Amino acid sequence: MPVVIAALLGAAMGSFAALLAERTLRAEPVLWARSQCRACAARLGWTELVPILSYLWQRGRCRHCDARIPPALFQAELAGALMGAAAALASPDPLRALVLGLWMWALLALAIADLRAFRLPDRLLLLAALAGAALVGMGDGSGWPSLADRTLNAGLGAGAGAGSFWLIRLIYRLARGRDGMGLGDVKLMAVLGLVLGLERLPLTVLLAALSALIVSVLRAWRRGRPLNRLGRVPFGAALALAAAVMAVL
């Protein structure tokens, strides 16, 4: 039953993560503005905002103007539900499950922002950092390792994550004369290192790189283009989702 409740909450939080990412990118108010259709500006009622079910019932269309609802919203709700269920299964108690879920939902918002606009907004990074700091402070309930050791490991992970990506960014710029990685990726690695620690970062980066490569190969195959003609890759999104997987495993 707790897993089912966590999944339902996760679906709602997945929808909120998509809303948070979109409104942050547009510099719009998040909490005080009513939800509305982007095509016809009609305000949406509660029956149109039920996660997952509303999308399926309306067949992915606005019931006011029949405009297509972005499938990314439905996908975010599904991803949020999976994250909520995974957090409940991986955590020893509901409070820690909630905090882990909040961290992963913040990562989901970052992934959506990166996929939509190749941006990792500072506001979303701060939310993920705060949830991550809470995770470090709470531990797993066993009392081991100690808070001092957890804090040290978190600091080393954050420093190593940010430092390594900053160095990669600098080397690329010196070699190519342009930026190949944004500062948002550097900050994201600090947030991931804070929670995952130094020892889990390399595997996280490897998982993100492999998933990004697979997606790029599939995109190149579908479009009939070579890999070097695909343009930019939203690697921050791959990092965020890989980190969520690593946190659960």
Throw out a few tags for this protein.
globular; mainly alpha; 249 residues
Protein described:
The protein is mainly alpha-helical. Helix content is 70%, strand content 0%. It has 8 helices and no strands. Helix 3 (71-90) packs antiparallel against helix 4 (94-117), helix 4 runs antiparallel to helix 5 (122-138) and helix 5 crosses helix 7 (183-223).
Summarize the entry for a quick read:
By secondary structure, this protein is an all-alpha fold. It contains 8 helices and no strands.
Topology summary:
Blueprint: H1 2-25, H2 53-57, H3 71-90, H4 94-117, H5 122-138, H6 147-176, H7 183-223, H8 235-248
Helix pairs in contact: 1-3, 1-4, 3-4, 4-5, 4-8, 5-7, 6-7, 7-8
Major beta-sheet overview: none
Give the helix/strand class: mainly alpha
Tally the helices: what do you get? Answer: 8
pLDDT < 50 stretches: none
In terms of DSSP E residues, the strand content is under 5%
Order of helices and strands: HHHHHHHH
Span between termini:
21 Å
The 3D shape can be described as globular
Radius of gyration over all CA atoms, rounded: 19 Å
Number of strands: 0
What's the overall average pLDDT, rounded? 92
Q: State the helicity in percent bands.
A: over 70%
